[in-house]
Design goal:
alpha/beta, 15-stranded mixed beta sheet, 9-stranded mixed beta sheet, 4 helices, about 25% helix
């Protein structure tokens, strides 16, 4: 009888343990990233709303929201974007692909307080449009790129990093952290282990920068560097042109916030509103005057036909 009870107790304990093990494992799985997407997410061909683990596409408004996407694919492309869209970053986002982690067909604006990590065998952010009027803008957010050849590569589109932080690591020393026709690094912090190059124009203005390369860190047909205090020696623009390592801190003054709309809106908006208000006041004053002149002219024209004598009196 005692033996039977012991066996029953052992079976009961084994059953309870088998129930507890999955409960202990589940939190670890969730913390490790949840669901992983293993195929290309192709928004470039979207003609309706799309939604998946960590992303949602509002087709009517051309807005893609990334909120915790974890994409790891052996396909050539990770995330493909159409032109004329906006990407909003929320939470931590990760995209890895065999060749191109993220590709853009044309103008795209990135914004939000989230982060985006890109890993690619060749190019982290591939801007393949041949239209020189297209523009890629990274307005804010945190970007980490690890690629084999190029962190950011643009065939013709303007590429601008406006604010936030960007950290680029490129494996091939003959590649580049950023390569494009027109490249603008305009705010926030930028760090790279390879060169930033532009075939036409490169502007580096008002940001914390730390670039180390096997050749000149900045190279362009037209190079402009402003509002940066070098911490690696030198201060003139010539000091940037031939340096393999450039590091410095922004000396740009912070943009004044809007008095009317608050801290999250640039102060320039106040001036725009002021101009609009002045134009409105002018219209309110000048409009009635012009209207009265038109009425008087119409009256005179009618009187000249019906009663020339009365018209002559009004003209006096």
């Amino acid at each position: 009888m005692n033996r039977t009870r012991r066996i029953c107790w052992l079976l009961t304990i084994c059953f309870v343990v088998s129930l507890l093990i999955p409960c202990a494992v589940l939190p670890v799985s969730a913390a490790s990233g949840g669901v992983t997407i293993t195929e290309t997410v192709n928004i470039a061909q979207a003609n309706k709303n799309m939604e998946g683990h960590g992303y949602s596409w509002a087709n009517r408004y051309d807005i893609l929201t990334l909120d915790g996407i974890h994409l790891d694919t052996t396909s050539a492309y990770g995330l493909r974007l159409p032109k004329n869209c906006t990407v909003i970053l929320k939470g931590d986002n990760y995209i890895k692909a065999d060749k191109y982690a993220l590709s853009c067909a044309g103008t795209v604006v990135f914004k939000g307080d989230g982060s985006l990590t890109l890993e690619a065998g060749e190019i982290g952010m591939y801007l393949y449009s041949e239209d020189g009027t297209q523009k890629i803008r990274l307005l804010d957010g945190k970007y980490t790129i690890h690629a084999g050849e190029y962190g950011v590569y643009s065939i013709a589109s303007d590429f601008s990093f406006v604010d936030g932080s960007m950290d680029i690591t490129v494996d091939n020393t003959d590649g580049a952290a950023v390569s494009g026709r027109i490249v603008n690094l305009l705010g926030g912090s930028f760090k790279a282990n390879n060169a930033v190059e532009a075939s036409h124009m490169l502007i580096v203005d008002g940001l914390d920068v730390d670039v180390t390369a096997s050749r000149p860190a900045f190279a362009a047909k037209s190079l402009t560097v402003e509002d940066i205090a070098l911490t690696s020696g030198g201060s003139a623009i010539e000091a940037y042109a031939d340096q393999n390592q450039v590091s410095g801190k922004s000396t740009a003054k912070e943009t004044r916030s809007s008095v009317i709309f608050g801290e999250n809106v640039p102060g320039a908006i106040d001036y725009i509103c002021l101009v609009i208000a002045i134009a409105g006041i002018a219209a309110a004053i000048v409009g009635p005057v012009l209207h009265n002149k038109k009425k008087k002219a119409a009256l005179l024209a009618r009187l000249e036909q019906e009663n020339p004598d009365a018209a002559a009196v009004l003209k006096r």
